[in-house]
Design brief:
- Two copies of one chain form a homodimer.
- Chain A has helices spanning about 15-20, 20-35, 35-45, 50-55, 60-70, 85-90, 105, 110-115, 120-125, 140-150, 150-165, 185-190, 205-215, 255-265, 290-300, 310-320; strands spanning about 75-80, 80-85, 175-180, 195-200, 225, 240-245, 265-275, 320-330, 335-340.
- With about 350 residues, chain A is of the alpha/beta class.
- The radius of gyration of chain A is 22 Å and the shape is globular.
């Protein structure tokens, strides 16, 4: 929602100020989540004195914050009372199973945020100002936060991804889950196929989160973990399926090809790799969420990008995959790109 | 422009992520201004290698930044070439007389930005985390930056404000310009009425900027300055007109009334005060830019606010003004609120 309405085709200073003040939306939403405001809104009655008591906040601060959230479409206001919008009720009230409020923790992690404070420097040099390999430095603790807090954003994509990957395949199945994170994707495959066995790879501290999630899902007896870099640890196998979720975008095409070759070598002939990615159209400026993700890769990695399908297809081919297809996930901004290990 | 299109009435996680990523819009626009990208775009031809040479930036960084700016509506893209939108051409290309790029300096000043990093704390306490009186501490250097960089945002409102204030009044006129800043408003009155004399009040370092602007406009022989706090320095007079631009929102109603009484005492009977303010509707959540300005006052002051017209009218009456009227400025998000010193 733009701060000022714009007339199609007419110059709009509101569009400029909307961007210059963008950080205030982030700050307001993060503060509301931290103060547990959306729970208090859901519990009612929604007048400022009640909300302030419930959140241990001042009345002045509560009123102004709620007004701002109303302006940006994340609360509603009737008279002096605030309530949920359909969006805040579903995605920000902690009582909702679809609540994504926890994602604010990873998305606000210093590893993600701080490079944006020096973005001009990043654009000059062409790579992150973070040390070393940036976000993909070994054992970066940000990925533990990712595993803890990003599951609600990824969960709606797990069932569709599982369906695409399994494609009705029953019976014993060996699955390698690279950069498993919270583990939800491999766990979902194990839930959809009771004879699937999962081997999850990630940093050791991250795998603790995945293992807890596997136990919660009741698949721990078919869930193994292997700590280390996806570029270095042995993959075992041969596997029927390799999951590569939210991973390839951290690297440039030659590095992706190197990794995909290693994946290819760990697959049975005819086995499949499935990457979950932000895949912009070939124009690189649509759809908005996938296209704008490139900026996060510019800021936090040395050479990553939101690769287009043409780029991903070329990498897959070079690494020995064919029958390559994309499956946009209807429940999220991501696309699953599937390739099959050539029968050579 | 939301990162994901939303269907009216349907819950939209895009609306949530749009807010969580809001800071990236700020960072991208600030980086582009710092790198003088909008000038390079205007000069063409707009391909990545040319832009990177012109801005001394990397090609990877340039491409990704330009794509992001295209997604948020501040550039256009045709094939591999970037160009201006009608908005960026008018408001971001430094060759345009309406360019507002310099406002990024004040709007990104640590005094404005840093309290937003601790917004939950601000909402708890009900006032700024800045020391003392926050942004209105004596001689706060941020106001020198305001005077230097905010003129392009304020300039389009100067002529309408001058017209409203003078209302056709010719002949000798004594004008007091409180919190003059860049001085543009008082200077405009002096330009519209060649017999007007201006007395400008602000911090000493700020008045240096106003004096330079007065000399540039050729009105320096009718332009005097007086350094100090608007609450403490003598106003002289009696004056015909007092300008109070972008000032009352820093204070709570009792403090505004105290100041307005001092203004009333310095006016001739029948003289007028004109405040330039962000004035939200009585619902406090519209129009968006005026309503959302309250959050900046919460973050940077102890008790300021974007006051509604009903609140301003009550303050004016209590201080001895009547015949109070609002004049929305067609060229900006502000409203001029005029009151007349009662003939008592």
């Amino acid at each position: 929602m733009a701060l000022e309405p714009t007339t199609a085709g007419a110059p709009s200073p509101g569009l400029v100020f909307d961007a210059l003040f963008g950080y205030q939306r982030t700050a307001a939403l993060r503060a509301a989540i931290e103060l547990d405001l959306f729970r208090a809104i859901g519990e009612g009655p929604g007048d400022v004195p009640s909300l302030a008591r419930r959140c241990s906040t001042s009345e002045r601060g509560t009123r102004i914050l709620c007004d701002f959230l109303t302006v940006i479409g994340l609360l509603s206001k009737t008279g002096d009372r605030y309530g949920h919008t359909v969006t805040s009720s579903m995605f920000l009230d902690p009582r909702s199973p679809a609540c994504v409020a926890s994602t604010a923790r990873f998305l606000g992690h210093p590893m993600i945020r701080e490079p944006f404070d020096r973005l001009a420097e990043v654009v000059r040099s062409g790579h992150t100002v973070l040390p070393g390999q940036g976000s993909v430095e070994p054992d970066n603790p940000a990925w533990v936060e990712f595993a803890h807090s990003m599951a609600p954003m990824m969960a709606p994509m797990a069932a569709p991804l599982g369906g695409i990957v399994l494609d009705g395949k029953k019976g014993p199945l060996s699955v390698l889950d690279i950069a498993a994170g919270h583990g939800l994707f491999g766990i979902e495959v194990a839930k959809q196929n009771p004879e699937a066995r999962i081997l999850a790879i990630d940093w050791a501290e991250v795998l603790k989160v995945a293992s807890v999630n596997a136990a919660r899902a009741g698949v721990q007896d078919r869930y193994e973990v292997r700590a280390g870099s996806a570029f270095e640890v042995p993959y075992g196998g041969p596997h029927d399926v390799v999951l590569l979720t939210n991973f390839l975008h951290h690297f440039d095409p030659p590095t992706c090809v190197e990794l995909l070759r290693k994946v290819r070598a760990a697959l049975k002939a005819g086995g499949r790799v499935a990457a979950l990615e932000f895949v912009p159209n070939e124009d690189r400026v649509s759809p908005p969420m996938a296209a704008s993700f490139s900026l996060t890769m510019l800021a936090t990695t040395r050479a990553g990008d939101a690769h287009t399908f043409a780029e991903l297809e070329a990498m897959y081919r070079e690494a020995g995959f064919d029958d390559i297809a994309r499956h946009p996930v209807p429940t999220g901004p991501h696309t699953v790109v599937v390739g099959h290990a050539s029968l050579r």
